[in-house]
Design brief:
Elements (H helix, E strand, L loop, with lengths): L4 H8 L3 H9 L6 H13 L6 H6 L2 H6 L5 E7 L4 H4 L8 H10 L2 E7 L6 H10 L4 E5 L4 H4 L9 E5 L9 E5 L1 H14 L5 E4 L8 H17 L16 H11 L3 E4 L2 H9 L9 E4 L13 E3 L2 H17 L11 E4 L2 E3 L9
Parallel strand pairs: 1-2, 1-3, 3-4, 4-5, 5-10, 6-7, 7-8
Antiparallel strand pairs: 9-11
Length: about 350
Amino acid sequence: MEHSLASIAKRAGVSVATVSLAIRGKGLVARETAARIKKIADEMGYRPNPLLASLATKRFRSAKSAVGTPLAIFTFPGLAEDSGTDSGMLYVDDLVRGAIKLGYSPKVYNQASADNSSRLFRELYHSMVQGIIILGSMDMSRFGPAFDWSQFSVVVCGRYRAALPFHTVRTNIFKSVKLAFSELQARGYRRIGFAMGTHGQAMEDDEARHGAAVAMEYSYLPKRDRLPVYLGAFKDVDALSGWVEKNKPDAVIGFAVGQYWLLRNHGYRIPEDFGFASMHIPIKEHRKYCSGLNQNTEEIARQSVLLLDQLIRNRERGLPQDPLDVLVSSIWNEGITLRPRL
């Protein structure tokens, strides 16, 4: 049996407004009071109606227009200096298409600095923007304090320098490493070396890749075939070739396609001397020749828009108490840098 906010308020001994704020996680309701109200609501079988709740919000109603509900896409500087691509920009076109398909009117905001965050908030608020998708490396300590996130639903698309305190849709890194490793094993490779490299500025993703690489070696390779993970700079050809010469892998799983070209230009024949697979092949032209993983940016973008749509409809705004990571599996790309499957 469903109960109204008024019946919950009566049982909890608080106002209807306090119940509404507590259930939505808004306002200045004490954490203990909010937890008690939510528990009572659960016990009474209260179930909010997301559509009616959204329509009840003045800004949501006002935002409706013939061209769609306003939505913002923030693009912050990415990782071009390390990996050769600004990975956040790979998602923009798919995000725009997905948002339009769901009835939104997206606008891209390129954020080179945090200096305009107060002005940007006012612009978005008065434009009736309901949700924000973040791409790239945002400095929360600089940009965040001057921006009132409580007025917007927010999703991070992809993973960058550090995790942000919002729901995030990103690649399943561990599963991606395991997929690449399994594909190489299926081709008969035994001395599989992981040339994962390290970004100039530490990233959480580096930890995930390195940990997955060590887990694959110790779980599935005999001791004689386990090689140290390459942790040097992506573009340091001397360090990378030195690692190859010392460890003699018969196949390399690299972080990016650029490492393939570094090794080829250094004189190695691929796949004759050893095979190569890239963990990240963002450019479609590179998929014609390089074996490895397509990180499925199209699906990551689609899931980001779908998640943001649900947050908006449920009026879940601001910083969530428990940010979620939605993990999307990569897709294997068959190129010519590995020998065929056995």
